[in-house]
């Protein structure tokens, strides 16, 4: 499905394309290394959202309504077939980035409504539903940037402010250039 402002997660041979605009904002597709196939739709339509995790343990969070621009704090968890509601983020925002896994996710940056450097961690305790907790802010506020890695070793690069060329690394407790 052709679309913009979608999120991604997974690996080269087991990827996920999540949400985005065209037109409903709920499409999920799985990539097996050579072709794409449709899968379970998001429960809450979202674009300009972030993703993390794997094709069988995915996480989608934040973003904005489709159509429209209402900011979302929604978290949705993917089990390889269907999406289920997770705990809401502490701060609704769009155009953010993510990293990590479904059990240890990271959300950083974005717009609410101005550009932010906020970081939140999504963690599970005693196999309960995950919860978002505030973490150390990024050094530079940015939006529409990329993110990768795990919650204890994440990276972000690029973005708008108006254009950012710096890279920041997160070690599980703080960001550094």
Describe the structure.
This protein is an all-beta fold and 177 residues long. 0% of the residues lie in helices and 38% in strands. The protein contains no helices and 16 strands. The strands form four sheets. It has a four-stranded antiparallel sheet, with no helix packed on it. Strand 15 (167-170) and strand 16 form a beta hairpin.
Describe what is shown at a glance.
With 177 residues, this protein is mainly β.
Strand content: 35-45%
**Structural Rg:** 15 Å
Question: How does the major sheet shape up?
Answer: 4 strands, antiparallel
How does the overall form come out from the CA principal axes? globular
Widest sheet: strand ordering: 1-2-3-4
Arithmetic mean of pLDDT: 95
Count the beta strands: 16
Helix/strand/pairing category:
mainly beta
Amino-to-carboxy terminus distance: 36 Å
Report low-confidence residues grouped into runs of 5 or more. Answer: none
Helical segment tally? 0
How much helix is in the residues?
Answer: under 10%
What are the secondary-structure elements, in order, as H or E?
A: EEEEEEEEEEEEEEEE
Topology diagram in text:
Elements: E1 7-11, E2 14-18, E3 28-31, E4 36-38, E5 50-53, E6 58-61, E7 75-78, E8 83-85, E9 97-100, E10 104-108, E11 119-123, E12 131-135, E13 146-150, E14 153-157, E15 167-170, E16 175-176
Descriptive key words:
four-stranded antiparallel beta sheet, 177 residues, globular, 38% strand, 16 strands, 0% helix, mainly beta
């Amino acid at each position: 499905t052709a679309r913009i402002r979608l999120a991604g997660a997974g690996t080269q041979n087991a990827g996920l394309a999540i949400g985005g605009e065209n037109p409903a904002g709920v499409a999920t597709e799985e990539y097996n290394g050579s072709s794409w196939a449709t899968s379970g739709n998001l429960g809450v339509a979202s674009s300009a959202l972030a993703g993390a995790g794997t094709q069988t343990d995915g996480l989608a969070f934040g973003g904005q309504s489709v159509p429209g621009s209402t900011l979302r704090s929604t978290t949705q968890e993917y089990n390889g077939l269907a999406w289920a509601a997770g705990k809401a983020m502490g701060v609704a925002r769009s155009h953010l980035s993510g990293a990590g896994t479904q059990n240890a996710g990271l959300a950083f940056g974005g717009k609410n409504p101005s550009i932010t450097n906020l970081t939140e961690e999504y963690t599970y305790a005693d196999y309960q539903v995950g919860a978002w907790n505030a973490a150390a802010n990024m050094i530079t506020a940015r939006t529409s940037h990329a993110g990768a890695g795990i919650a204890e070793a994440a990276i972000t690069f690029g973005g708008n402010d108006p254009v950012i060329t710096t890279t920041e690394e997160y070690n599980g407790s703080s960001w550094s250039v």
